[in-house]
TrEMBL record:
This is A disintegrin and metalloproteinase with thrombospondin motifs 10. GO terms for molecular function: metal ion binding; metalloendopeptidase activity. The keyword Ligase does not apply. The keyword S-adenosyl-L-methionine does not apply. The gene is Adamts10. Residues 586-624 form the PLAC domain. Pfam families: ADAMTS_CR_3, ADAMTS_spacer1, PLAC, TSP1_ADAMTS, TSP_1.
Amino acid sequence: MSSVASNMESNRVSEVCSELWCLSKSNRCITNSIPAAEGTLCQTHTIDKGWCYKRVCVPFGSRPEGVDGSWGPWTPWGDCSRTCGGGVSSSSRHCDSPRPTIGGKYCLGERRRHRSCNTEDCLPGSQDFREMQCSEFNSVPFRGKFYSWKAYRGGGVKACSLTCLAEGFNFYTERAAAVVDGTPCRPDTVDICVSGECKHVGCDRVLGSDLREDKCRVCGGDGSACETIEGVFSPALAGPGYEDVVWIPKGSVHIFIQDLNLSLSHLALKGDQESLLLEGLPGTPQPHRLPLAGTTFHLRQGPDQTQSLEALGPINASLVVMVLARTELPALRYRFNAPISRDTLPPYSWHYTPWTKCSAQCAGGSQVQVVECRNQLDSSAVAPHHCSAHSKLPKRQRACNTEPCPPDWVVGNWSRCSRSCDAGVRSRSVVCQRRVSAAEEKALDDSACPQPRPPVLEACHGPTCPPEWAALDWSECTPSCGPGLRHRVVLCQSADHRATLPAAHCPPAAKPPATMRCNLRRCPPARWVASEWGECSVQCGLGQQQRSVHCTSHTGQPSRECTETLRPPAMQQCEAKCDSAPPGDGPEECKDVNKVAYCPLVLKFQFCSRSYFRQMCCKTCQGR
């Protein structure tokens, strides 16, 4: 069996507790993806003999307790899905700190969270976000053809799927299972789609916000900025032309016009410039959207077959509702909320602004909701002095992003360069930490932080260094005892010590000394040196032998500093062994031939070693 097949078989044996593999008649490994029975023998890299217990291989005979899972840290918030108009940012976490094992419980709670972002209004004239997503499929073929797509606004489709209508063709289709997060679920609503589901948001476009529009469509208002005007209009007599029904002032909201005679075909709307903005409506029951006066009017048919024209508003121009009274007298019910005139409404009031962005992405931040003074008529922000200081609302604050931060590197500042000129090295501290709260940080092992670790050292460079003196090592002290000198070579070199320069390039005052006095130890005193003893002055009997004695310094040179009393002798007595001879055969009697003053002089001047003088002065030389 090959090593690859052997490894595969080994892996399958170790995974038997989670998935049982069997050998077929054709010698192939097969499985039906079910675990082995409890108690089945198993083996892993760390367990030589084990058994299956709750789909895990554990030591044989043991029944360990399961470990419940626990959530790991939240990931940092992702990019916002929109640049304006209310987008969504998300963060996720995993059940891996620790993972559930041996039947342990899985983590409870949300694995993914969302928050609102970029809630400010888009610029006037910006393309509708859903229309933008449909138009991106214009360059994508559909069933082999290219179409120009626009958003489908009709019913019968999922609110958060991207359903697009092919312009010029009588069909629509779902181009994506889910729209981009932050797309409004339906027209004229602030609710948005998140992960393919419609989620409620407050009127401040913040997920989870409790702020609601009042009847005047003022976010967080109390309904005091407008008044409801409603009624039923029926002309007394039929006549030629249109007849005015009601005047709807600029800024009105929640406009509702219903024809009690089942059709709005005789309805007309007139603008400020006395021009007809709308004349006659289709009698078909199909829904229609009519952009008009800065808002969208919807033509709808109720369960009792009556038709109505509705708009959320506010309208940016005053409208006059008119009817054409002919043979059949129309009857209209109308209702709208009109802004209260400046004379009866306090012009300015305090309002809460949306929550600020969280001050920290993790480990505990804060959000603030401040108040601002607004114009009641158009909800625009004005200077604070316009509102009453006594009625000012308190500032709100709340905690946010309280979960611990993921481990990350905490990097200190770089130190100064190790050299003030040319190339050097600088360092900094790099520590793996995890911020638990605003006031607590926990140091971790380097392996817990993202790799690779930021560098601790780096090269640094300064200006070019000037030439400098470079001294070589000192020589040995000469002489080796007593007062002496050490010497060394001093060179003028470039800063990198690669080139030797003339001495004039370096500052003379900074030149190191080239010689130095030294005294390793005191020199030994002069001493007497004696040579080997010479031969004895006689060959038989007592004689004298001599040697030379000189005063020598420690260097071997002649000296006069030796102590005379310690001078070794230069002469000593010696005795030479005489040979024995039979009587009559012996030599002549040893005597001095010259008995005057000759023999003493021979002895005095050490001539006894010479055979002639030794024979002539035998007695004197032998000391007899």
